[in-house]
């Protein structure tokens, strides 16, 4: 009698976190570009504010030869970055948790890392488009001078990347706060609007009350705006900053600190489904 031994079945290969994240990134980006309401807010809001304030404030900054609109543009680019990351993720993740999307994803090979790779890649694409639109519009409409030296483009690159990372982590962290999808917009948009007023977006930062300056300096939007001003404005404008310099080192340190703190918060507070308690 001969016996046959069945060959052991090969264990099915589970896709890596990176490969799942790449597929999720493509899906997230397609979904975002198909959501007209989100796109209108993300892309149109900074442009509309830029047009309105550009029409109202067309004078030069006192004591300088620089048009206030050029000062204002750097702040609006920073605002565009925060809208595409912090606002987008803070609301979207809360909605997906409330409507059961995250609960369904948990039952698939989707890992937390892959899910956030998809989100981060999506907001990075949206942010790059947002920044490109704002810069192109500012150059055409307001004559914004582009950086003329490699070191300024390098500053632009690291401020953009650190700013996107900090606001992305902050958006993921705050997404754990809303208890329902209905409350997500109010919880996320309110601090976003407040930060614009205390971060030197609509006004020259050093001319605001000292208490507001100290409060605004605690958050990343102020430092992203200041870093971008160092890219698009002449070095003579350093004199109107509170410290009399662009403070590149402090900008990098504050943004990195926000990345680390919000990363820890995101890891410890993320839940696939909202608590019913």
Automatic annotation (TrEMBL):
For membrane topology, the record states: Multi-pass membrane protein
Q: Which PROSITE patterns match?
A: ABC_TM2
Task: Give the source's domain of life in one word.
Answer: Bacteria
Q: Where are the transmembrane segments?
A: 39-58, 70-95, 116-144, 156-177, 184-205, 252-272
- Where does this protein reside within or beyond the cell? Cell membrane; Membrane
Pfam families (alphabetical)? ABC2_membrane (PF01061)
The principal localisation class reads membrane
Has keyword Lyase? no
Going by the UniProt record, its keywords in alphabetical order are: Antibiotic resistance, Cell membrane, Membrane, Transmembrane, Transmembrane helix, Transport
- Keyword field contains Ligase: no
Q: Which PANTHER family match?
A: NODULATION PROTEIN J
Q: Which family does it belong to?
A: Belongs to the ABC-2 integral membrane protein family.
Q: What is the protein's name according to its record? A: Transport permease protein
Organism from which the protein derives: Amycolatopsis magusensis
Source species taxonomy: Bacteria, Bacillati, Actinomycetota, Actinomycetes, Pseudonocardiales
């Amino acid at each position: 009698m001969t016996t046959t031994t069945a060959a052991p079945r090969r264990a099915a290969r589970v896709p890596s976190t990176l490969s799942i994240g790449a597929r999720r990134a493509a899906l997230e980006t397609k979904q975002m570009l198909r959501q007209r309401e989100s796109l209108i807010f993300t892309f149109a809001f900074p442009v509309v504010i830029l047009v309105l304030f550009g029409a109202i404030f067309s004078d030069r900054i006192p004591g300088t030869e620089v048009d206030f609109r050029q000062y204002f543009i750097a702040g609006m680019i920073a605002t565009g970055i925060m809208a595409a990351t912090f606002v987008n993720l803070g609301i979207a993740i809360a909605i997906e948790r409330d409507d059961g999307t995250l609960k369904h994803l948990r039952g698939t090979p989707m890992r937390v890392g892959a899910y956030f790779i998809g989100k981060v890649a999506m907001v990075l694409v949206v942010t790059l488009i947002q920044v490109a639109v704002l810069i192109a519009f500012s150059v055409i409409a307001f004559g914004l001078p582009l950086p003329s030296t490699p070191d300024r483009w390098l500053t632009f690159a690291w401020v953009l990347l650190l700013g996107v990372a900090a606001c992305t982590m902050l958006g993921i962290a705050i997404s754990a706060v809303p208890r329902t999808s209905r409350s997500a917009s109010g919880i996320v948009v309110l601090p976003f609007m407040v930060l614009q007023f205390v971060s030197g977006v609509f006004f020259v930062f050093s001319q605001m009350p000292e208490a507001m300056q100290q409060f605004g300096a605690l958050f990343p939007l102020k430092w992203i705006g200041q870093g971008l001003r160092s890219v698009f404005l002449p070095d003579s404008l350093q004199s109107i900053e509170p410290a009399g310099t662009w403070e590149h080192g402090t900008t990098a340190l504050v943004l990195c600190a926000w990345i680390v703190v919000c990363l820890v918060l995101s890891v410890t507070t993320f839940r696939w489904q909202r608590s019913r308690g």
